[in-house]
Amino acid sequence: MRDYQDGSVYVMGLGKMDKTPISGSNVLYFELDDGCSFIVRPSGTEPKIKVYILGVGATRGKRARAARAAALNRNISALCRGPDLKR
Known about the structure:
Order of helices and strands: EEEEEEH
Number of strands: 6
Helix content: 25-40%
Shape: elongated
Number of helices: 1
Radius of gyration: 24 Å
Strand order of the largest sheet: 3-2-1-4-5-6
């Protein structure tokens, strides 16, 4: 977690580890193990909290390769089962 109010960086299980390059902002930044993160801060003009969620996903190329691999696996499985003689 990065606390931009006091400029500290905390690592779960290890405690305070480092300083952020900036400080003085009322912002908390949380990083998750899977690469996703979220940011929490108060609104500057309204009485509400804002949450920003940052996700990590596969690129189009990775999704396309995964789809081709899945289709290939289905075809190989069908070949291994042999012809459908129930027709």
